[in-house]
Amino acid sequence: MNELSLTLNERTIQGKKVAQLRRSGVIPSVVYGGKAEPIVTQSPFIETSKLVQAAGQHTPVKLTIGSKQKLAMIKEIELDPVRRRVRHVAFHAVKQNEKITTQVPIALVGVGESEAEKQGLIVLQALDLIEIKAVPAKLPESLSMTIASLATADDKLTIADIQLPDGVEFADLEQDLDIVVANVYEPSALQAANDAAAGDAEDAVLPDEEGATTETGDAATPQ
Fold first, then answer.
1. Model confidence at 217, in pLDDT bands (50, 70, 90)?
2. Are strands 180-185 and 68-79 parallel, antiparallel or unpaired?
3. CA distance 198 to 193
4. Which CATH class is domain 4-94?
């Protein structure tokens, strides 16, 4: 795994005044975790955006803050609702020798090359992420699964087919290994299922505006 790093500067501007930081090409952030008080920080927009895209919320990042270095995971990413640009990042410090729990993507390998697809069948991924546990140095960027064994509409891949790297385990010790990761479908059966789903959606009663809700985080993140 390639080491990702970012240099942060401690920040004195907080609250509503951080808007002027963003206008000047600087992203506000916060680093918390352990027994230390959270550190409010900032970093250049371009470097921060590249790091967020590369690391996501599943890859450890080495942070340099003055003379200190911390290993951290990105815990929260706030995006501009219109332009989808990074507005704020919350980092959570972790220890090198302690296992951490995170979600990583499941990547299907050999798409378009399986015997099922060669026969005109369709392979669809049903599970995109899986929660795992490992020390930071052992965390994989993703878990790969080959679909080469899929040949008929009765075939499927489940969590039991995932090959975990050394030092990596499922976060849930009682993980259900029968959960499906990928299915094989006859095109006609898939079309029928899509048509049925579309019909159910048309029959659904839409809530009025007063019933609308907005999802928020469990706790406020220092700005």
1. very low
2. unpaired
3. 9
4. mainly beta
